[in-house]
Design a protein that fits this description.
The chain has 547 residues and is mainly β. The chain contains 6 helices and 36 strands.
Amino acid sequence: MSGKEIWKFIPLIIIFSCQQPNEPFERENKPPQTSLWADSIAQVVTSTIKLHWWGDDPDGFVKGYFLTTDNLNWVWTTSNESTLTLKLGNKSIDTSNIKVTAVDDEGNGIWDQKVQFGNYSYGCEPFDDLNKDGKYSTGEPFTDLGLGDQTPANIKLVVKNSPPSVAFNVSSTIPSITLPVATFTFTGIDPDGSSTIQNYFISLNDTASSSWRPIPSNTNIITMVADLSDTSKNIVIAKILIGSTLQDIGITIPNFKLNNFNRLYLYCQDGTGAKSKITTMPDSSKTWFVKKPVGRKKLLLVDEFGISSPDPDLVYKEILSSTVDKTGKSFGDYDAIDLSTNQIPKSIARYMLLETLKLYKIIFWYGKVINYDLAQQVIPQFIDKGGSAILSTGFQNLSLSGTDPSLLALDFAPFDSLITSYNKDSISVSGFIPRVYSQSRILANDSVSQNKFPQLIYDRTALFGTYAIQQGLSDKVLYRLDSAKATNPSNTEEKWIGRPAVIVQSQNKKIVFATIPLHLCNSNEVGTNIPQLKLFFEKIFSGEFGE
């Protein structure tokens, strides 16, 4: 063997001679090093900032990180980035010293109540509090931590507050004409975090400092209801109801103008005192006119009929002017809401309409097809508050192959179901009523009693489309449609048989539901010049509703 060949083996001999057979190899675990970087390199930043961090472990892997923005409370995370909102307290400018500590994965296999690296204490090892008792229990999963960086990465930032902003929601724009009830929804945004908005402030028709009223920051729905106790006033105060529960928070707002145009002003303020710009509803391109109730607030008409001939509004105006209550006073001083031409946005309709209805004793809601879902949301609560209601509506374009959503929204109505077919001599006949001819009778169920309901007669051919109804066990049938007139052998135009119920009353007498257009039943009582419809309304308003 040459000299060169001998030297090849000398290093190997030296290496192996340092370790005895079967002796384990030991190495010292070293803590990771942490790095931290912010998106913004400006000296002054907003309170919302995006941070990135990472750790390098020379002899293993990083398990996760502890992070603090206040040098006191450390948060455990396995993420490498986050968008943080830095708290300013009540200052407009403050400093924040952010620290991040990387921790490796070489734990000791047991849960440690105290974690400390260098001069920093981090609390206990993170664990899943399965029994929700706020403390670690044997068997609960935990994060086993190894060594942590003894000198956390840190970055010191000068933080400046950003003012908040607020805007009325476009989807809830106030209708151009209302009665003295209005609902508004809005959204406040603060770059420093929505939780920093302390209050909203509103005022009506005036931005003087004395006119602003605070609204809690935890709501974005307000409903204003005018105080109508003094009918001589045209400028009144309004109470403020908040949220979807219409909670009365004991705050009133001045300057609500009746029979005049109004505008609502809004701004918000954060914890540092910074204010948003003032916004208005409606904006400068629109107007909002508030009608003053006409008289005694006894009757409200809710109109969803739209354009029709004859115009139901004109018929009811004439009839109601001669309809009197128990004291002999006319119901001609009614108020009206036209939901067909002046719709209330869906997002505020429930709150605004409910509080409007509650101003009145009786409502008369009519249309070819009314908004059943909205009626379901407001009428039961209106009745619970002592109100009474007449509804006159049809059922068009229903899906009769299954349960139609329209019918599900009529739980409050005094009927059990629609009658969609009758059987006669084993032949099924549709219960749909597309046409009723002039002079057809609507028969009163108790016409022979001393306190009878007037008989109604169609004063013209009616083409409206509806179904007969099946009353519930506790409901009372007030009127039935007379037998159909066979205009041709197949009877294709009047599609019902028998005498189906078309006007039904609830057991508590508070709701009268008609599936016929009442304005077409305006013939005079036999042998008189008194409209049958006038007698009908008087019987319902005074005899049944007690007004």
